[in-house]
Structures are given as structure tokens and as C-alpha cells.
Input
Amino acid sequence: MSFNRRIFLKSASFAAAGSLVWSLSGCGTGGSNQDGSDSTTLAGNSDGLTPSIPDFGLQLYSARDVIGADPKGILKQIADLGYKKIESYQGDQGIFWGMTPKEFKAYMDDLGMTIVSTHADTTKNLEKTADEAAEAGLSYVLQPYIGPQKSVDEWKRRADEFNKRGEICNKAGIKFGYHNHDYSFVPMDGLIPQEILLDNTDKSLVVYELDLMWIQVPEVDATAHLQKYAGRYDLCHVKDYVREPKVESTDLGKGLSDYPTLLKVASDTGVSQFIVEQEHYPSPVMECLANDAAYMKQLVFKG
Output
């Protein structure tokens, strides 16, 4: 049965709920706009400055409720909104939405977009997934979820497995990586699981995609983490969020994240792929994705 990212994100929501009962009181909130004010003010916006990230992308899971019925039509709408890059996921119709890898690449070329990465179940058939990803012109295959582990040793075993998957992907000419949720930043025996992975994986074999919502939700200092692990994160998910009435994502600029500041830190520390993702919608899906694109088109780094 094909891997479906929805299952994992449902699990992540339970992990998020559990992790909110504790607080890392000693950590800063780098990248968060904790006073609750609207974060839509973009430095330099009124001065007509050049946007800092003109080639922003979209994780297709953001369009999960509409893309299945008409993949090509929705992809064209996404391109028309101004997204330049795509990150896919392994849904019911596969990474390439019913097309062959070459057909999907050709369609992306026609739309003026690039598919740079995909989320996939890398625990099985990774050689096939990696070969097809390379054929379609992808640069990365990413494991989106592994769930909370029971011990530090279990986290270290996952790191060993990641190194082996990195070897497989390298042979295909692409990179293997891991995408975090909040459980990766819940302390265990005085250690941060995400740091266990980073410290025990070979940087020539394993890259990381930092979900900037899921590092901020448990109040980890995202700025300090990015600076500590400069060069390890190739990609990030740009995803805003609210805490009330419950923790969930929202349109960019409508939540707590200070992205003009945080994305500059990300860029300065090696992130090159900025992928918008939205999991919950205060208005119809495509309207939200249009709002997100408009935000990214106006964003100018601060700091």
C-alpha cells in the first residue's frame, strides 16, 4: 500500500498536543512574534525593495483536498499564483500524480516550475523511489515522519538508518533528508532528539528540512538552532501558526512567526529551498495558497 502523508500528519497532531504540556523555559523564541500581533508587516515592503525569496515553492500536501481530482489543473493554478518550485508527497496517486517521472518533469517545465523534492516512505523501495526521483529531476527525497522514539539509543539507530538511506540516494544522484515535527525537539534524557540525528549522521549523506512551525511550537529557539547547525539544513517549510483556540497552521503573515527575520537567518546558515506549507485553512484552500504566495512575493529580509 502506498505511503500517505496524511496518516503521519494526523499522528503529528497528537504528538503536538502532547508536547504542549511542557515548556522549554530556558529557550528563546527565535523567529516567533510572541506578542500576538499580526506578522504581515514586511520590512521594506513600502519601499519597493526586491523580494528576498523570489523562487519560493509549495509542498503539495497544502493542496491535498483539491489536487486529487485534477492534478494538472491544480498544478497550473499553483504556477499561476507565482510558486516557482514544487515539493511533492507520496499520496494515493503517487509522487508524480499519475504521470511518469519524465511526463511530470515535462509538465513542470511547461508551467515554468521545478520539482525539487518529495516526501516519501523511504523505509521500502527506496532504490526505485530514488531512481524515479532522479529521472524527474528532483534533488531530494525526504522522510517526512518517524514518530517519537522510546530512547536515545533508538534515535541513534534512526541516524544509522538515515546514513544507509543516504548512500542509496547518493548512488542515484540525489540527496536523502529528514523533515521534523515537534516531537524531534522534545527533550529526552537531557538531549534534543533532532540534535542526536544531526550529530550522528554524515553530512555528505543526510540533509535536513527544518519545519519552521514545528520547531517554534515547543518554544525552541529556531535562530540559535539554525546557527548551531549551519550548513546542515538545505530546505525549510515556511508555515505560520496560531496557538489559540488550538495550535494549528494559518495563512502566512496571520500567525506568530516573524519570517522576515527568521528566513534571513535560515538563508544565512545555508537553507536554499524555501517551501511554503499550510495544513489548516481559515478560508478555501486555493485562496489561502494565494494569500501565502502574495506574502512571499512581498517578503524582504530583516536583521
About this structure: The chain is about 40% helix and 15% strand. The first helix runs from residue 5 to 19. The first strand starts at residue 57 and ends at 59.
